[in-house]
Amino acid sequence: MADIATHDTDHATDHGHHSSTGLSNNKLAMWLFLGSECLLFGGLISTYMLYRGRVQNGPHPAQIYDIPFTSVSSFVLLMSSLTMVLAVSSAHRKDDSKTNLWLTITALLGATFVGGQVYEFTTFYREGLGFTTSLFGSSFYSLTGFHGVHVSIGVIMLLSLMGIIKKNKITGDKAEVVELIGLYWHFVDVVWIVIFTLVYLIPS
Amino acid sequence: MSTNELTLTPGNALDVAKGKLVVAPTQSLGAVRRPVNTTGWREWLFTVDHKKLGIMYGTVAFVFFIIGGVEALFIRLQLALPDGRILSADKYNQMFTMHATTMIFLFAMPMAAAFANYFLPLQIGARDVAFPRLNALSFWLFLTGGLILNASWFLGGAADGGWFMYAPNSGPVFSPSNGVDFWILGLQIAGIASLIGSINLIVTVLNMRAPGMTLMKMPVFTWMILVVQFLLVFSLPVITVALVLLMFQRSYGATFFDVSQGADPLLWQHLFWIFGHPEVYVLILPAFGIISEVLPTFSRKPLFGYPFVVFSGASIGLVGFGVWAHHMFASGLGPVSVAVFSMATMAIAIPTGVKIFNWILTMWGGKIWYSAAMKFAIGLVILFTIGGLSGVTHAVAPSDTQQTDTYYIVAHFHYVLFGGMVFGLFSGFYYWWPKVFGKMLNEKLGSWNFWFMVIGMNLTFGPMHILGLQGQPRRMYVWTEARGGEGLFNFGFWNMVSSIGSFVLAVGVLFFIINVIKTTRNPERAPLDPWDARTLEWITTSPPKVHNFDRIPVVHHLDEFFHRKYVEDEVTHTMKQVATGEELVRAEEAAADADIHMPGPSYWPLLLSIGMGVLGMGVIYGTPIMVVGGLIVLFSSYGWVLEPSVPDAIDFDTPSTDGHTKEIAPLG
User: Fold this and answer.
1) Which residue on chain B is closest to A139 by alpha carbon?
2) Which pLDDT belongs to residue B654?
């Protein structure tokens, strides 16, 4: 998404160009994209809620969920939102080294979360819950897997962004590029709060 | 977004005038240079110009219209006589599935996208869309999706589960060929195309209107397209989920819709129709927008009740999200759901009725000019009303349970989609052809085109009401003499009428193709304002220049172009002409802006789309292919991101006294 984030804000700030809404094109597009993503996760969450109790083979949800472990990884992900905010704020202050520092920490926290998810998936698999074991398994892996892919893409975007900043390839409004990726990152975190509550905390 | 720009400075204005655009080649990803050639086939392959992309959308969509139409003719040939032998049961299933899928996803939506792409920036006084490269990506992804869908014909058979692909028909037991897999992947890729396109167009409308053009001064076509894009943004992700789940089931062993594994097949129906019903309005609202431009122009009157037309369009879109289960009355939802969805569905008839009355009152008392465009627009009003009325009979749940899966339903949606949407699109062809190509379509052939289509369409779909109420099931591949019945209501007679009608319809479309060929060969140029039109797209040359407007118009009125031509006489309160359209266009040319820079062409949209196609094929043909596709996608994404994004300083005028530079490039 980094690519949508360059040109016109540059104009907006540097050349007195105003859009009708006051939002830059890039930001408006990102908000619309995230609005669309809400429905994507809505569909997946509905599917999980419908199927979470349907276990013909293999373990039940209550038998395999490790709430303390997932709570810790959720906490890690939520903290990454904080560091993302700090990155955006540094970017607005045009402090490149601080921006890079906070982006690195955010990416690391995100990667830790994804690592935790990989660990969780392998544990569940060893305990007998494969992707095709039951409807519960299929819908669980589809939902959390989709979310994991979103976090992974976010990490890749953060790393790419750092590389591009370092090579000074961003000639547009750097702060806005950081902010756009931040929007995406916060969205992915908020979705996780919903998933964590509905999937792990509410007993089926 | 708009990276590397074509610079039109006084220095190279001469080159520009000769059609030679000057681009400084810059590099991205080290080895790959930007495309700089803007002539020949490269002009089309790497373009990011919304007008060229609009023409490409239109051309490809029309080819799919012909393909879908031929599929329909096969269906009608098979059903013309008892014990039809043209198609096997299996081929027949593929034929009606692909007919519907092609017409909806590969003709109707992209053709609306063609009009939107071309005219939306022109109607709001913008020089391009907000994200020109994403616009190109949308087109190429749509083409990739369409090719994948149709490739299935040659790779083991097409999808055969009906366009809404209900479980269990979509499962491997009833659909063992790869057809459904191609269908899933083609639709997912086409869906991404629509999603990107819709975000792009919403941003364009909300952010890039000419100075003075408030939302309530926007042309109705632009308004309807805006509503449609919102519908797409929020409905496409739902079908994406459904398609992904089905893909997991067919390719990776999950059992989301497999009843024997305890699954709920209604999940598919809900997900499909939460998308599928807004989709119905995605198809019809652009046509409503088109005729809301055509009817006032050819009635020589402003649109009656502009705010009502706008807000009824918006409320159709809004309520359209809350009626999906009326497609599922026969599935046993329970009385409360059925009652709620039944009421909501009937409620949609209100804003639709408002629109129809507004159109009628627009024509009322007007000096009507029966051009081909106007004929198609009036055809829409009448035929859509017939389809709308049969639609209300489905809203009544007890009646609907009798009609479900009969030809009555087929009759209904062909009246609203063919009589409504297709007629609207044809109206748009005749109205805007001189704008896009600078030549007038032949009115006489247009008249033949219209009458053959209107007669053919009623002969084809009218009898289906009778067939359906007599109990002929939908998707039945053959009927026997024994079921034919007697008298006026026998199957045989009306099936034959319907089949003959479909060929009359085809002749009508043929007239259009002949018309296009004749017009293309005709050297005569169209006048700049042939219809005495009302909206901003006519205040520039035909076809418009690369940068659309020589200067960005400042808007004071709804129907700005009309109000520049006519002013109200103080004494008589009649409209008096003060300028011709031609004079206005020339005046704009004389006052042209000096430095206009436009986004430059790019390889990445095309390459990214090819990568997506290969990635999709990998789902069917194995992981190695998927990896190759993924690598192409990754490579082109980085190429895209790294494409230099800031124009040279030369693109800006020297600072004016207020400290701002004069900068007139399109955003993004």
Assistant:
1) B256
2) 33
| Nearest CB to B199; choose among A6, A21, A32 | A32
Number of domains comprising chain A: 1
User: What part of A 59-118 touches B (C-beta under 8 Å)?
Assistant: none
3-state SS, residue B526: coil
What does the alpha-carbon distance between residue B651 and residue B597 come to, in Å, rounded to a whole number?
Answer: 6
Instruction: State the Cα–Cα distance between residues B82 and B90, nearest whole angstrom.
Output: 18
The shortest C-alpha distance from A19 to chain B (Å) reads: 5
Cβ-defined contact of A25 to B640 (cutoff 8 Å): no
The tokens describing B53, both together, are: 């992309």
Q: What is the pLDDT of residues A59-80, one digit of tens each?
A: 998 888 999 999 999 999 999 9
CA distance to partner chain A, nearest, from residue B646 (Å):
6
Distances (CA, A) of B634 to B194, B230, B627: 21, 29, 10
Q: What is the CATH number of the domain that holds A164?
A: 1.20.120.80
Q: Are B506 and B73 in contact (CB under 8 A)?
A: yes
Return d(Cα B568, Cα B578) in angstroms, integer.
10
Checking if the pLDDT of B20 tops 50, the result is no
A16 contacts B660? CB cut-off 8 A: yes
d(CA A15, CA B659): 9
The domain locations on chain B are 50-545+553-592
Q: Which of B206, B236, B238 has its CB closest to that of A21?
A: B206
CATH topology of domain B50-545+553-592: Cytochrome C Oxidase; Chain A (1.20.210)
Distance CA B343, CA A201 (A): 37
Query: Would you call B79 exposed, middle or buried from its count of C-beta atoms within 10 A (0-12, 13-18, 19+)?
Result: buried
A168 touches chain B (CB under 8 A): no
Residue A148, domain extent: 2-201
CA B180 to chain centre: 24
> pLDDT digit string (tens) for B572-590?
888 889 999 999 999 998 8
